[in-house]
Specification:
alpha/beta; Rossmann fold; Rna Polymerase Sigma Factor, Chain: A; 2 domains; seven-stranded parallel beta sheet; four-stranded mixed beta sheet; 17 helices; 46% helix; binds NADPH dihydro-nicotinamide-adenine-dinucleotide phosphate; binds 1-deoxy-D-xylulose-5-phosphate; binds manganese (II) ion
Length: 396
């Protein structure tokens, strides 16, 4: 079998490094064609030395210069490119079969669209790209004849629990139930959330992840983004998307059928499992993850969103359903506001509980009209970011 040639967008991140780990377990099956990062020169250099990709792209121009100098000093053949256009180029390159989309945030949308239009197998970890792109993203997938496969653990679980034929989903499925860990503050008094530090927010109880998604898990905005992501991936209306808190993260999500049967996917919390599934689909390959040991599984518990003060503790979650029912483009505004607010929290410019205030203020201030193309979408994203910064300035 000819090796599958892969571009890993965001190769220095949590998903990126896990992807390279899975790929390394299957020499001959996969080959790395291109890698990308924003600023981490040392790690990208080490990955280039090990994997010898044809291209390495850095979002930051200074970092690209430093990487090129060091590759030359070590006589490594990888060609360095810089900036957003270069990301699109390695995503759409004719020699590429598979693109792992593991950039964090809306910055990943344009290369995802490029991969979609070029008809690649697109492994989507970058949920923000779909939350921003919505139907426009799906149109690009259809037009390009791409194969979109979910990598987010919940969506991989749902995909594994659904019937093979998407045409039967609407008729056979009653609802999708996304599980949520509840993050590090699941049992905290809501009033204490104003004291939360970035370090506390990034300490997820079950998963080791990048800082942005870790903060999103702590506010449960991650689950809000995932409800929106599920709507676009699986085509069910907002009222057929449910969330239940499951603190152990053993059940990664579930599908409830018309006859009330529930089909779920379970496993240890290790992203190499959905990554291996996306890479090899429809086959299964070794991921390197530890198997679940049911004899040592102490507990699997569940909490309703309407119990234990969760609605007050996690007010942002509801915005997912509100934005899905509002004007198309609202989910892009929510995402932009949240990216800006999370960055401000990590920079200690706002408090943890103010992330939600910024999101709400931005949603109510930005007028949304249905975006017709990528230019419209990017303009809406930029307006929402500017508005979110204004809301932050009013808070501080
Ligand atoms: N981590 C996880 O377990 C999961 C993550 N996801 C999703 O996957 C995506 C990646 O998450 P994660 O791996 O945790 O994030 P990380 O922060 O660990 O990694 C992000 C990657 O993107 C690069 N990057 C950051 N900003 C830019 C930019 N503006 N332009 C180009 N590249 C950029 C980073 O480069 P550099 O290292 O140089 O900064 C890094 O390679 C997110 O959308 C997240 O929601 C989904 C499910 C689980
Ligand atoms: C690993 C993964 O997919 C994350 O999105 C994870 O699910 C976060 O967990 P919670 O958002 O449920 O805390
Ligand atoms: Mn997830």
């Amino acid at each position: 079998m000819k090796p599958q040639r892969i571009t890993v967008l965001g190769s220095t991140g949590s998903i990126g490094t896990s992807t390279l780990d899975v790929i390394a377990r299957h020499p001959g099956r996969f080959e790395v064609f291109a890698l990308s990062a924003a600023r981490q020169v040392d790690l990208l250099l080490e990955q280039c030395a090990r994997l010898r990709p044809a291209f390495a792209v850095m979002a930051d121009a200074g970092a690209a210069r430093r990487l090129a100098e060091r590759l030359e000093a070590e006589r490594l053949p990888t060609r360095v490119l810089e900036g957003p256009d270069a990301l699109e180029r390695i995503a759409a390159h004719e020699q590429v079969d598979v693109v792992m989309a593991a950039i964090v945030g809306a910055a990943g949308l344009a290369p995802c669209l490029a991969a979609a239009r070029a008809g690649k197998r697109l492994l989507l970890a970058n949920k923000e790209a779909l939350v921003v792109g919505g139907d426009f993203f799906l149109d690009a997938v259809r037009a390009g004849g791409a194969r979109l496969l979910p990598i987010d653990s919940e969506h991989s679980a749902i995909f594994q629990s659904l019937p093979e034929d998407p045409a039967s989903w609407d008729e056979q499925v009653d609802k999708i139930i996304l599980t949520a860990s509840g993050g590090p503050f699941r049992t905290w008094e809501p009033a204490r959330l104003r004291e939360v530090t970035p370090q506390q927010a990034c300490a997820h109880p079950n998963w080791v992840m990048g800082r942005k998604i870790s903060v999103d898990s702590a506010t449960m905005m991650n689950k809000a983004l995932e409800v929106i992501e599920a709507h676009y991936l699986f085509g069910l209306p907002p009222e057929r998307l449910d969330v239940v808190i499951h603190p152990q993260s053993v059940i990664h999500s579930m599908v409830q059928y018309r006859d009330t049967s529930v089909v779920a996917q379970l496993g240890t919390p290790d992203m190499r499992v959905p990554i291996a599934y996306g890479l090899a689909w429809p086959q299964r390959i070794a991921s390197g993850a530890q198997a679940l040991d049911f004899s040592r599984l102490a507990d699997m518990s569940f909490e309703a969103l309407d119990s234990r003060g969760h609605r007050e503790r996690f007010p942002g979650l509801q915005l997912a359903w509100e934005c899905l029912r509002a004007q198309p483009g609202s989910t892009a505004v929510l995402n932009a506001a949240n990216e800006v607010a999370v960055a401000a929290f990590l920079d200690e410019r706002i408090r943890f509980d103010q992330i939600h205030s910024v999101n709400l203020a931005t949603l109510s201030a930005v007028q949304v009209s249905k975006p017709q193309d990528l230019t419209d979408l990017l303009a809406l994203d930029a307006r929402a970011r500017a508005q979110a910064e204004e809301s932050i300035a009013c808070l501080t």
